[in-house]
Amino acid sequence: MLRTERMSAGFSGGYDVRGWGHTYALHFLLRLRAAERVPLGMRREVDESVSWLVGVLAETEIVGTGGWNDRVFERSESFGTALAILSLMRPGMPCPADW
Asked: What are the b/e assignments for 34-65, b being 16+ CB within 10 Å?
């Protein structure tokens, strides 16, 4: 599902937006799962992708200060952290009221 070069694990330095892709993919898949909208026959693939994405986020956390970002500049070091934290917490959170 997500096993393409552009979604590979790691950080190449400079401006690398894979972290955003990992975070948004995790958030989307967890919401899909919580809403019980995973397409038939894809539950295992979704579950494996969720586990893989959590592992990728764990591996790419900024060492020392924590957080996630798409570039390595001190002034914006944790720019991607908010959604990453929300996504990592998502499995234990209830569904929004409109679901």
From this structure: beeebeeeeeeebeebbebbbebbeebebeee
Domain span holding position 70: 15-92
Residue type, 29: L
Q: Is the pTM of this model over 0.85?
A: no
Report the C-alpha gap between 51 and 45 in whole angstroms.
10
- 85 class by beta-carbon count within 10 Å (0-12 exposed, 13-18 middle, 19+ buried): middle
Q: Is residue 7 part of a domain?
A: no
- Whether residue 12 is predicted with pLDDT greater than 80 in this model: the reply is no
**2 found inside a domain:** no
The Cα 90–Cα 24 span in angstroms is: 12
Q: Specify if 30 maps to a domain.
A: yes
Q: Please write the tens of the pLDDT for every residue from 13-57.
A: 655 667 778 888 898 998 888 888 999 999 999 999 999 998 888
